[in-house]
Amino acid sequence: SGGMHWRSLNQGVRVGLELTFEDNGPGIANIEKAMEPGYSTGGGLGMGLPGSKRLMDEMTIESTVGKGTTVIVRKWLKK
Length: 79
Known about the structure:
By secondary structure, the chain is α+β, with helices and mostly antiparallel strands. The protein is 15% helix and 46% strand. It has helices spanning 31-34, 48-55; strands spanning 2-11, 14-23, 58-64, 68-76. Strands 1-2-4-3 form a four-stranded antiparallel β-sheet, with helices on one face. The N and C termini lie far apart (37 Å). The mean pLDDT is 94.
């Protein structure tokens, strides 16, 4: 189980959007490996995390094996 939260960002002249995804799943044992295009432990295409990183301006991942994962991504409005 898990969820997604969003919030708008306003840091002076920068305006953007932040999305936070949290789950209570098995966690990611090797985040560096999970960020490699094509790597999948669930039988998918392995493009979810690396694809998200390419689309967004900022990305952080925190994960604990056996407890779950939190992914935060930010996209800033281009002027």
